[in-house]
Amino acid sequence: MIPTYIANAISLIVQTAAIQAPPPTPPLSAALLTSSSALAASLKSSFPNQGPALLPQPYWWWQSGTAVEALLNYGSTTGDWQYEEMLKNTIITQATVTNDFMTIDATGNDDQAWWALAALTAAENKVPQLGGIAWVDLARNVFNEQRQRYQDGANTCGGGLRWKIDYEGGNNGWHYKNAITNGLFFQLGARLGHLTNDTEMLTWAEKTYAWSTKVGLVDQDFNVYDGTDEENGCSDLNHNQWSYNVGVYLYGSAVMAVHTKDDKWVNRTRGFIASAKRTFTSPDTGALFESKCEGKDIDDGGCDTDQVSFKGLLARWLGATAVILPEVQEDVEKIINAAAIAVQDGEKTDLGPIESFNALEVFHAYAYGTAFWYGLRGMCRVYDPLMVIGWFRPPSQLNLAPNDLEVYNVRNDGWCLVTLALILVSFTNAVPFTSAPATKLTSIPYAKAVVAATVFHHITTGIGAYQHYKLPSHYNTSMSIGVWGNVWLTLTGLFTLAMLQSNAGNKPVEEVTKKAK
């Protein structure tokens, strides 16, 4: 019997989630980070004996790999690296002496690939190396092994990886070429190629994507189907759709778009985002929804131990896509904002390890997107103040050269926005009241001061933007965004102050991360 863990940080926000104003306001980023801290603690608590980051039965070994990656993403998002040593040791031990994750549990190519992605995430986030091998080399070893298993003969459907690694009589999925296995190989090649600038790996990514479309795993509407059978020449498809299948191709395409600068990959990324929204979000709540099995009893086709974690992976890759590919950020935010609200409105308090993982991924995706947006706006002001000066000048002065004071003021405004982004992500001990689970709160006074100062800043800049917005020469989209952005930030800041004054804001985090057997 698996113990259930209560990660009730969501309740800090649920009590304020009853605002009925269309469109719904996304949850406060600072509160999301608070919740993420509790959820990360809940996920860690799921590991038996507090040893390696391996989930207990009945969860699968591959799911432990995704949990490791989730906690690595948590650390890079929040700056809270308290789990780093545990994660590093887990990756090294699971890599084994052959440095390729070929443990007894690696029966499928996908099992092995999930752990390769965890190692690759450690490399991308510059996690300090442990032992004599680099994180990127662990991922590279897996990729090189899997490309040797790639079957591109005429009698094996002209390409693709089989699901299973060993034959074992052929009845174990040996002949099945599925979307997740080939999607992971595609994404692994794209990310490795991008990180190391290895053109051969990028070529393999192109090749795998082309094969996936050729046999119909990915159709023209970017629906991603579960798999096909090489015994039938891959002429028949299993048309089941799972959220992590579209997610794995989505992020691989986004990485290819960033590296190649080719619009075809941007368009493909948009296609997968649209497919995800169409198929895997609830039309009623906007929540991420496993359409094939969610809402059913397990005996009636409900989600099994594997399937409960799929939508968390989709959320992870949606958020990661928004970070690296600004062109699609707005499309992603439409999904993530609604999903984050739905998670918190659901008032879930009984979160096992997989439910913790799903909510954690949604929170990370939203926090990444919000901080990236503020940082981008700020850096535009820092590096190109002349453009911004034109927004705030009266018409009679548009042709005058800017003076030093104007440049200084614009750059100062830019640094304020950059600082706001840092507050939301890096200074999580200050805003609004996060700290390591099981520690007492000590930073509430500082948090209130920070929030009050930023609210005052947003009020003053919002008034200034509105005064210029009323001028015919400045009645434009940019100024409108400035006005409403400051209004939104002011309201959320005041909301944060109110929450800090409430009873919930005076509770130590340890009261929110209780454990129940």
Automatic annotation (TrEMBL):
Alphabetically, the GO molecular function entries are: mannan endo-1,6-alpha-mannosidase activity
Q: Which residues form a coiled coil?
A: none
Q: Name one Pfam family in it.
A: Glyco_hydro_76
Biological process GO terms, please?
carbohydrate catabolic process; fungal-type cell wall biogenesis
- Reaction catalysed by this chain? Random hydrolysis of (1->6)-alpha-D-mannosidic linkages in unbranched (1->6)-mannans
User: What is this enzyme's EC?
Assistant: 3.2.1.101
Query: Which UniProt keywords are present, listed alphabetically?
Result: Glycoprotein, Glycosidase, Hydrolase, Signal
Look up keyword Signal and say if it applies. Answer: yes
The yes or no answer to whether the keyword Glycoprotein is present is: yes
Q: State the family named in the UniProt similarity comment for this chain.
A: Belongs to the glycosyl hydrolase 76 family.
UniProt enzyme class = hydrolase
The identity of this protein, by name, is mannan endo-1,6-alpha-mannosidase
